[in-house]
Amino acid sequence: MSSATQPTLRQHLTDLLRTALQTVAPEHWDVDILLERPKQASHGDFASSLALQLARSLKTNPRQVAERLVAALPVSDLVAKAEIAGAGFINFTLNSNARTAVVATILSAGTAFGRDVASGQRVQVEFVSANPTGPLHVGHGRGAAYGASLSSLLAFAGHEVSREYYVNDAGRQMDILAVSTWLRYLAIHGQVLPFPPNAYQGDYVFAMAEQINVAAADRYVRQADAVLGQIHPTDDLDERLDGFILAGKTLLGEGWQAIHAHVLHEQLTDCRADLEEFGVSFDEWFSERSLYDSGQVAAVVDQLAAHNHTYEKDGALWFRSTAFGDEKDRVVRRDNGIYTYFASDIAYHLNKFARGFDKLIDVWGADHHGYIARVKGALTATGADPGRLDVTLVQFVSLFRNGEKAAMSTRSGEYVTLRQLRHEVGNDACRFFYMLRKSDQALDFDLDLAKSQSNENPVYYVQYAHARICSVLAQWASDGVSDIAVLQQADLSLLDHEREVALCQRLAEFPELIHNAARDYAPHALAFYLKDLAADFHSWYNAERVLVDDKPIRLARLALAVATRQVLQNGLSILGVSQPESM
User: Fold this and answer.
1) Tell me: the pLDDT tens digits for 297-334?
2) Which end of the chain is more exposed for a tag (fewer CB within 10 A), N or C?
3) 284: helix, strand or coil
4) Which CATH class is domain 100-119+455-575?
5) What distance in Å separates the CA atoms of residue 131 and residue 458, rounded to the nearest whole number?
6) Where in the chain is the domain with CATH 1.10.730.10?
7) How far is CA 503 from CA 3, 66, 115, 506, 532, in A?
């Protein structure tokens, strides 16, 4: 049995209060019972405001309600005393065994501590899903870190998780990348055309043009005049760019498909490698093009039309999105017969549902906030349950260096890439710093702090706690004893100092933290917890020697240190951060 399937101290006290409640006020048996850690140790280990919650409805003084609740509390071997304080708070003081029992639980459970092995839901988390039209930037990196951490957190909390990347390998953006590369290739062969300002500008486009030149020589060369002859004069930049795309398709034929396939392969390969180096992997790379090739996009549009959820206007086919809560109706098929991204997105989500997932979680950039209503509306229109889809938003990232906001892009339009950030500060700092804010809050990323080896650097501070414990264990091993099993027999009642009790309390919170963070899709809560755990450990370590001469005390403190290391390992693993043994 995992630790998460055993009742926590908080749950045990909640059960005691609910039993008392059924005696004192059975009509309120289902009220939410809240327990908090008092700020002062003299106020006990847990405090409840239940009496204050009930006083008004019972028309009774809160202290009198508290007295009745305390009198009705069942006897518990874990509770030393329950006292009434202030206006009617109920303060619980645990006995020493209850406070330190978590250490033995952790030593026994190991990597399973905090894990819920109960049968959860089949959950799909789709994240990153950036168009394969260029290197991943630091914003994509935050989505990658969040999605990967959330997936690991949900799996740790007992769910069956599938991680998916939706590859936008169909549509206009890939055509733009292909034509951008072709125009650079033509320039290599002396056929220089005015490069569209809204085409892809980065150095990687020149690199792909060089690759095509090496592989194909002059096979795809067309005269500049012939290309321009295919383009209708216009001042509209998008129309002119589309003219270059049409010219490429018309003049190259199968050659266009070859260039398209090459740039897709190059960018997707680079994206995979970048993410794998970042410790982010996927179970499925789902092709958008497959939705068109299989007829799923056309089928879902026909389905919407058959149920009168569409209408024609100006030659285009519109979905009645306003009927389902959207601010305006949306085009699903343009006047040229081409389906929109929205149409393929509807088909994609129906495909997900057809694969049998209980819950779909989409991780989108904050700029896609307005997209949620239209997707859920379309799902409702098709008869699917929109409640099975949750969308979490990831806000933008700002980089800071020397206290000033760093430039995020160059004149050529190239953004600071995830790879550049990783190479500068390291994967661990990236993964942890990305989790230092709730995903839907803007993040200021301090580059100098991320590289510093100081207690102000949160990832260094947490990893240093782990390394310190490893150092203590190495010293213990040098004495000729290193069997962790010995620690399971330690007398934990000797852990009675204030800092030891505080550290035990923090460790005991881990299973509940996992449960709540998974429920709220909030891996940032785990990062905060690990910072607090490291602070509690460093405070204890700096105040008390672990390897004292007194053997029983030494073994008890070693057991506490090993339990702390285990929880640090479990938490850091979920966040994708390494656990160094020395620093």
Assistant:
1) 999 999 999 999 999 999 999 999 999 999 999 999 99
2) N
3) strand
4) mainly alpha
5) 32
6) 100-119+455-575
7) 18, 30, 20, 5, 10
